[in-house]
Amino acid sequence: MPNVVVIGAQWGDEGKGRIIDLISEQVDVIARYQGGNNAGHTIVQGDKKIVLHHLPSGILREGKLSVIGNGVVIDPKVLIEELTNLQDTGYKVNCENFKISDRAHVIMPYHKAIDKARENLQGKGKIGTTGRGIGPVYEDKAARRGIKVAELIDPESFEARLKQVIDERNLYLSKVLESEPLSFEEIYTEYVEYGKYLKDYVCDTTKLLNDLLKDGKSILFEGAQGALLDIDFGTYPYVTSSNASSGGACTGTGVSPREIQSILGIAKAYTTRVGEGPFPTEISGDLEVKLRQAGKEFGSTTGRSRRCGWLDTFALKYASMVNGICNLAITKLDVLSGFEKLYICTGYIYNGQVLSDFPSTYKVLSACEPIYEEMPGWDQDISDAKDISELPTEAREYLQKIEEHTGIPIYTVSVGPSREKIIFLKELHS
Ligand code: IMP
Predict the structure, then answer these.
(1) Residue of the nearest CA to atom 10 in ligand 1?
(2) How many Cα atoms occupy the beta-carbon half-sphere of 67 within 13 Å?
(3) How far is it between the farthest Cα atoms of the chain?
(4) Rounded CA separation 319/253 (Å)
(5) Of 283, 272, 280, whose CA–CA distance to 367 is shortest?
(6) Per-residue pLDDT tens digits for 327-377
(7) How far is it, in rounded angstroms, from Cα 356 to Cα 375?
(8) How close is the Cα of 306 to the center of ligand 1, in Å?
């Protein structure tokens, strides 16, 4: 198996967890490289449904090493809950098969308080964040007042660092955001215990990953969120605060681009988005309700209803350019059964002109009209299909159109939530 980066090619929630779970069987290491517990990766195994927020989706595979890289931001309380839940359910997670980067940054209570207070103050202009403190923790990282995992696990350094930053954060909370300041003592007492709990899992994962590569081991780099939520290339300012694109795999683990051979983009057979921001192919009314219910489009992190719309191959082409996507894994094709007509967006019109490129500004994107190609739908339940030949002609044509409009070969198509409901189409590029 080549070293492969797996990313979401839309606005997140593409079903990365189940694809990563599937292909992690063929690699030695699964390394998550950005985001925090704003992510929610759902994996269905038999009658068990497991939602992971922090842990890499490969954690459920025995004999694999799972790594949280330096680019990830960690809420230690949530991570510990996730670890203990999995251990209680019988999964073997220990400091042999799970490692946390000492360079990763810690989400502190003031990050969550700032995130929520800001969104409340913004009212209509809010981003619609997950409220997990993601923006504020990455802000602190860039402003050089963040707290790293290495400091969290060393009580002396933690005390000194927290003292250094808390007064300023409290001033910001109380004077600017009109919120309650937080107590140094309470945070210190609580978090120092988290540090003690996590200490044995922590190491220099950059050195570890590079050593493993030297020994010929293969790595799956796990992205969270999606290409269109990337801080640089997403639909700014309605984005998350990290590089969800494939480039983030290098900065978020400390592994060189020379080590990456393949990039797999995951895309739903339609499109969803959670939170605010432009979404040219968004649909409304009964059709949206039907799609949301068929696809169970409710956030696995916040429970919010996801906005739903048609597949946007113009946006996918852009995601492919920025990320170097070699193959697509199309998820949830079964959800489209029962729609009389389907629409694929192939381009945008802005100010009466057909655009040649995906817009780089919010102003233009939010005024774009999609150009659609209409396709016949299918009625059959396709969830038992095991081979492409078992799909109705219309479903096969739909997949062909995706390849045609994006220029990217499809690796897999999933037709149901569980591990086995997947059809393999083409080889993974390397
Ligand atoms: P934040 O990452 O919590 O700051 O949220 C910023 C934007 O990204 C909001 O629109 C969120 O709904 C969206 N977002 C963050 N994480 C995810 C995810 O895992 N799936 C889908 N949307 C996400």
Answers:
(1) 275
(2) 32
(3) 65
(4) 21
(5) 280
(6) 999 999 999 999 999 999 999 999 999 999 999 999 999 999 999 999 999
(7) 23
(8) 11
Nearest CA to ligand 1 atom 15: 38
Token couple for 104: 């990763």
Give the C-alpha separation, 421 to 386, whole Å.
7
Does 41 qualify as catalytic in the annotation? yes
Using the CB atoms, write b or e for 415-426: b if 16+ within 10 Å.
bbbbbebbbebe
Q: E-assigned strands of 201-340?
A: 202-203, 219-222, 262-268, 271-273, 307-309, 311-312, 327-331
Tell me the two tokens of residue 215: 């020994």
Per-residue pLDDT band at 90 (split at 50, 70, 90): confident
Our answer to whether residue 167 is catalytic in this structure is no
Q: How far is the CA of 234 from the centre of ligand 1 (A)?
A: 12
Q: Find the DSSP H helices in 296-340.
A: 313-323
202 token code pair:
């922590």
Residue 382, both tokens: 């396709």
Q: What is the pLDDT of residue 123?
A: 83
Q: What are residue 349's DSSP bridge partners?
A: 354, 369
Whole-angstrom distance, CA of residue 164 vs CA of residue 162? 5
Q: How far apart are CA 149 and CA 162, in angstroms?
A: 12
Residue 183: closest CA among 285, 109, 111: 109
User: Ligand 1 centroid vs 273 CA: distance in angstroms?
Assistant: 9
For the chain, helix, strand, coil in percent to 5 are: 40, 20, 40
SS (H, E, C) 374-418: EEECCCCCCCCCCCHHHCCHHHHHHHHHHHHHHCCCEEEEECCCE
Given a cut of 80, is residue 48 above it in pLDDT?
no
- Of the candidates 259, 311, 301, 249, the one whose C-alpha atom is nearest the C-alpha of residue 280 is 311
Coil, helix or strand at residue 294: helix
Q: For residue 58, give the 3-state DSSP assignment.
A: helix
Q: Tell the burial category of 17 from Cβ atoms under 10 Å away from its Cβ (0-12, 13-18, 19+).
A: buried
